[in-house]
Amino acid sequence: MKTRIELENTGNKILNSVRTELYLSMRFMGAALGSLDYRMDLSTRTVGTDAAYIRFNPTYILQTYIERPELLNRTYMHMLMHCIFRHMFSAPQYVDAELWDLCCDIAAESVVDSMDYPTVLRVTSDFRQEWYEKLESELSVLTAEKLYHYFSLRKRDPYLEESLRQEFALCDHSFWKRMEPPKEDRDNPPPQPQENTAQQNPDKVQEEERDAALLGATDPKEEEWKENAKRIESEMEMYAKDAAADAGRLQWLLKIQNKERRSYREYLQKFAVVREEVSIDMDSFDYGFYMHGLNMYGNMPLIEENEFREAKKVEELVIAIDTSASCKDKLVQQFLNDTASILGRQEDFFDRVRIRIIECDNQIQKDIRITKPEELMQFADSFSVAGGYGTDFRPVFAYVEELRRRGELKDLKGLMYFTDGYGEYPKKATDYETVFVLYGEEEKEERKVPDWALELYQTGGDR
Predict the structure, then answer these.
(1) What is the pLDDT of residues 300-336, one digit of tens each?
(2) CA 451, CA 445: separation in Å to the nearest integer?
(3) 46, 199, 233, 370: least CB-packed within 10 angstroms?
């Protein structure tokens, strides 16, 4: 027992030393570094994490710390990448667990390799560099999800995958499969057998309870890691701007991961206003008075249904379409079809609306007025591109301001701008909601959408 305690204390001291060294180099990682405790676990020959603990074999920790301390730093950071990008929480969604593990390791190592900190720096092998160049030429960004999709669509080569696994794997992923189930599963456990297992084999029950405690009867804290990721991104922007370059791709990937996703329909609710419309309001109908009138006077209800009701729907909206040469007709048509199918629904729009569809490249090409939801579908069916020059977003915003000044847009709640995202943006923020609906790869770094505008990405359909 004494030896076990001493081994665990030694492992804890070594990992604490590694954590301190990493923190001194990357203070913006403080939230992540403070979120993992340590547990000795003899079920592994190396080290791994379940997002709550770093679980280690003390022999491996001690030997690595003596012989290759830089590898231990690297492995610690590798595990943090798994947690920050929440690889272990996504694992159940992927059928091929071995391929998912490999993709997670490649994604984690690609981030750490992009960092320029002596504590985690290592010479990149020719084999690794060759694969980085190959993958980056076909994928805009090396996330585990994209890598899994990439390898799944190609002919599998077990020997190649094993070579990649030997190159990129640094930690034990078996703890991912041994995390606690989600809270709802714990609240609704499966039916237990009628036999009294505890009476039949009390030693086995005690052993299972001890193992459960050892594996960490704590929530893996996915929400906490989401907040950690947001906090790291924020601190890198606010306090570590000079160090952002040394952090490589981390800030960029965090920005992509933390970006708020919204569907077209959800976003439309930001444009909604409350108005009365002619429609029977069954919610305000009182059946008590209705039946009382029928009982007292025969076929004479005292109160009938309200013929007006309050509704929160979209009434006024501007849709701008980038018709520059970089925007393909097919993509614009898809956007219009998707938008028309959503906005044409009765529950989203009032019977009479004020929609302006503005086609623009580096100048205003067309301005189409839509007064009825069904006209939007008609416009989508007959759409043809006008323009085809360079992209400048500023004329649309200037034109919208002119329409507002003339009183043609009286209660504008928002503007949706479909574009590839490359062009001159206005510098002044609008006093109405503005969203750029972008197509193409979401992770392109060259896009400079202003902070005051939102971004949505077209993937087809109502998402």
Answers:
(1) 665 555 554 444 455 678 888 887 755 556 667 767 7
(2) 14
(3) 199
